[in-house]
Amino acid sequence: MHIRFVASAILAVILFSSLVFGECEPNWKPGNASTSLNNSVFAFTKWDPDGNGPQPEMLIAGGAFTGCIMSWDGNSWNYLGEGIYNNNGSYAVYALAVYNGDLIAGGNFTTAGNCIARWDGNSWHSLGSGMNATVNALTVYDGNLIAAGNFTKAGGVDANYLAQWDGNSWKPLGSGMRFSYGNASVLTLAVYDGNLIAGGGFTKAGGVDVNCIAQWDGNSWHPLGSGMDDFSILYALTVYDGNLIAGGFFTKAGGVDVNNIAQWDGNTWRQVGGGMSYLVYTLKVFNDNLIAGGAFYSAGGVAVYGIARWDGNSWQSLGSGMSSYVYALTVYNGELVAGGAFTTAGSISASRIARWNDTGWHTLGNGVNNGVHSFEVYKGNLIAGGEFTQAGGVNVNRIARWDGSNWQSMGSGMNNIVYALTVYNGELIAAGDFNSAGGISANKIARWDGNSWYPLSSGMNSRVHALTVYDGNLIAGGFFTKAGGVDANYIARWDGNNWQPLGIGMNSSVAVLTVYNEELIAGGTFTKAGDIDVNRIARWDGNNWQPMSDGMNSTVLALTVYDGNLIAGGLFASTGGIDVNCIARWDGNNWLPMSNGMDRPVCTLTVYNGELIAGGYFAKAGGIDANWIIRWYGNNWYPLGGGLSSGMEGGVVSALTVYNGELIAGGHFTSAGGIASANWARWGVPQPVEGDLNHNCVVDLYDLGLLVERWLDDDCMYNSRCYEADLNYDFKVDFEDFTRLADNWLAGL
To answer: How does pLDDT run across 339-381, given as a tens digit for each residue?
Structure first.
């Protein structure tokens, strides 16, 4: 008691001292971008945002993935503005080019411009009134931007599938294209021997018979020999070793058997090593080789699977190829980059985008490929659980650990979703909808000892959504009615050996658990706990269930303790007739509103830097823009940067925690504050320092004061990790935490 009195005195002196603290602004950091894009990649280009300035050249990818266009700076993927979309819900970027220093995107979209738009480094702009249908290809010829596609009008002018932009207005190229059997389509463009080359499915150009390919000399259209055979389509053009190379779906060029790829020497068509077994979608020159990508499985009789290289004499594979189609190729930072519909490249997981160098195929970036539902800190690592199967390009199967730099697997993971995580008796507990963990039978719940997964008896008969520790027991809540074969209606406790019920349980599912004022708190869809009316939230005093005033009028999804109050979030709009709108605080006797709440459900809550953090589906909190995440301090809501975005409706923040001085958010989203972050993101100061509890980038007397305060707070285990004062994550503040803080303080002096 004497020690605590002295500590309290020290705390008072520290907190009321006139100290000047260094300023350090927190912000969003990459979480990082996805190792993959969530749908096909159709186009690449390189773009330098400041020309010859200090900013690095970027790789730009366009496709059908969320947002349709992203930039890669060598470290992470980033959106260009809010991306590109179509108001009718169907959208893609099919073509990219650079014109007059601006990035040009063409495709099927309406939000940045009608099917074509330019990015000046800060915002999207239309090019006149754009096109009346899809843009498939872009290039620059004779000082003009050339666009090709399915459109018949460009800027309101008749253009018939091809148009040129001089920087101010659209003009046609002759009378454009026609197709003898219906509508024409121009799919690819190139410049060869001073002429513009167009390829596609057309049979006439400017009234001249051309058969899928034609050349424009600046005044009129001309054929290249007799072109391709009937009912053919040309998808790709490039120049290699002085010849024009054409790829697509055709068997003859100029009457010669060629099989989907051919070369034009200026006078005649010739085959390229026997050609491909099926469609060629894209062509590129890399390291003096011609690279072809597409839907083929052999080239010149060699097994190649979607991608192949021609050295001038024969076709060769690039590793073991891709698992599906390759639609786009480019060269960036001395490496070949491939994009398409594939989910593996060679033997690695590299969904839809991969890079090739002398050592083989590699991914671009880090991230998680599906939703995150839960976080926990265990043995110094951040643990994430959810729907994902990959993290940072590593196969992880619904659970993974982050050591501060890299994602790692935990055994072979789970065979289905992980919804909840906690630590009990020095082991990590994972729960969800799985029935195996690490390859062993584990019904909905399992424990990890640092090396292997083990079951907890026979587990549950249905999914588990919530975990916590109370009174020395592990508590689980969910949709189950049996635990370890024992009746345990939606909630049960594990004493280290056996499962037991808590009274007679609930009459419906339990979604969330926490501890407040030495009582267990449960929230969910239930209206009864035991035989007591409770309305979606109840407290367990160790022997019986008790109501908490009138409860809520709909589901409770999230609980935490903040500033001495219990905070509840969910789908509810009111409590006891009081409007609270998805979030409310309990002062020990009554439920109270928090400003005017949110416009949509709250799914998760935590405490970071002395502030309450809420995440969910909401766009606004207290009337201000929030974008799925918000902080509460004093009596008001405040934004966290620009919040999170998925580029479209349907995003959510479903998990929050604090790790290594940073706030960690997980869910379904693609960017945080405009920075690409695939389903998980980090918020914090530029360089976190262990022991910097007030996040001002230094360890000082104020941090010592906060540590003393948390030491004096005996129930810190239930108070969001003692407001981060538990520096070694052992669920208590003790001498070791003081030692760690002192070491970092002295190191900074």
So the answer is: 998 878 888 767 688 889 888 998 776 567 778 899 888 988 8
Cis peptide before 451 (omega within 30 of 0): no
Q: Coil, helix or strand for 701?
A: helix
Sign, Cα dihedral of 622, 624, 630, 631: negative
Residue 5 has pLDDT above 50, yes or no: no
Please check whether residue 524 is in contact with residue 508, taking contact to mean a CB–CB distance below 8 angstroms: yes
C-beta separation of 292 from 307 below 8 A? yes
Q: Are 545 and 538 in contact (CB under 8 A)?
A: yes
Pairing of strands 195-200, 213-216: antiparallel
Q: Per-residue pLDDT tens for 87-126?
A: 555 678 999 999 999 999 999 998 888 999 999 988 999 9
Give the three-class secondary structure for 45. strand
**Taking the CA atoms of the chain, what radius of gyration do you get in angstroms?**
30
Phi, psi for 382 (deg, rounded to 5): -85, 125
Q: How far is CA 154 from the centre of its chain?
A: 35
Report how far apart, in Å, the C-alpha atoms of 683 and of each of 74, 255, 560, 673 are: 21, 62, 19, 10
The dihedral sign for the CA sequence 93, 94, 99, 103:
positive
> Which of these, 415, 448, 449, lies nearest to 432 by C-alpha position?
415
Domains defined along the chain, listed by start: 2-15+693-748 (no CATH), 39-362 (2.130.10.10)
pLDDT value of position 588 = 93
How, if at all, do strands 591-593 and 583-586 pair? antiparallel
Tell me how far CA of residue 474 lies from CA of 23, 215, 424, 428, 467, in angstroms.
41, 74, 7, 11, 7
For 469, other C-beta atoms within 10 Å of its C-beta total 21
Give pTM, 2 decimals. 0.66
pLDDT of residue 701 exceeding 90, the answer is no
CA–CA gap between residue 675 and residue 667 (Å, rounded): 15
What separation, in Å, do the N-terminal and C-terminal C-alpha atoms of the chain show? Answer: 32
**Percent helix, strand and coil across the chain, each to the nearest 5:** 5, 45, 45
Residue 448 pLDDT > 90: yes
Tell me the CA distances in angstroms from 42 to 137, 204, 309, 636, 741, one per residue in order: 11, 26, 19, 45, 51
Non-local (6+) Cβ contacts of 492 within 8 A are 460, 475, 476, 480, 483, 484, 486, 499, 500, 501, 502, 505
